[in-house]
Amino acid sequence: MFGLIWAVVARARFVFRQFMPTNLLLDAIHTRRGLKWGMLAMLLAVPYGWGALACLGLAEGGGQGWLNLIGLLFVWNALKFLVAGPVTLIRLVRVRLGEARMARALTHSPAGGGEIPGEAPQRETIELVR
């Protein structure tokens, strides 16, 4: 029984990851090229918040009960975009600092290349043959 539940959840996650528009956008934002758009993507939380308020208000005012599920989905998507903004900003700063560190290391090395900072220097080993 547990294996069946596990398989169903894994398949559902695959479908949601591959075909839901917000997940596709978040996957694109979390790439190296998309990190700069993370803070701008936070603005997408505003329409999702308005949609949630509208759906939940209609459901509370005597509308259909399924509007609660749509409102919950809107709230979930808004939270995903609100969290994605600061996370991508932190990742972008870390990537840019790493790139600057690598560029500094390459310009200050004697031959314009060589060892990567933070890695142990490679030493040649001499094998003794008897």
Could you characterize what this model shows?
The chain is an all-alpha fold. The protein has helices spanning 2-19, 21-29, 38-41, 45-60, 66-108.
Which residue ranges are poorly predicted, with pLDDT under 50 across at least 5 consecutive positions? none
Question: Roughly how many Å is the radius of gyration?
Answer: 25 Å
Q: Which oligomerization state do the chains in this entry correspond to?
A: single chain
The biggest sheet, with number of strands, parallel, antiparallel or mixed sense and barrel status, is:
none
> Quick check: average pLDDT?
85
Percent of sequence in beta strands: under 5%
By secondary-structure content and strand pairing, the structural class works out as: mainly alpha
Beginning-to-end CA distance, first to last residue:
63 Å
**Envelope shape:** elongated
Number of helices: 5
Give, in order, the helices and strands.
HHHHH
The counted number of beta strands is: 0
Helix content: 55-70%
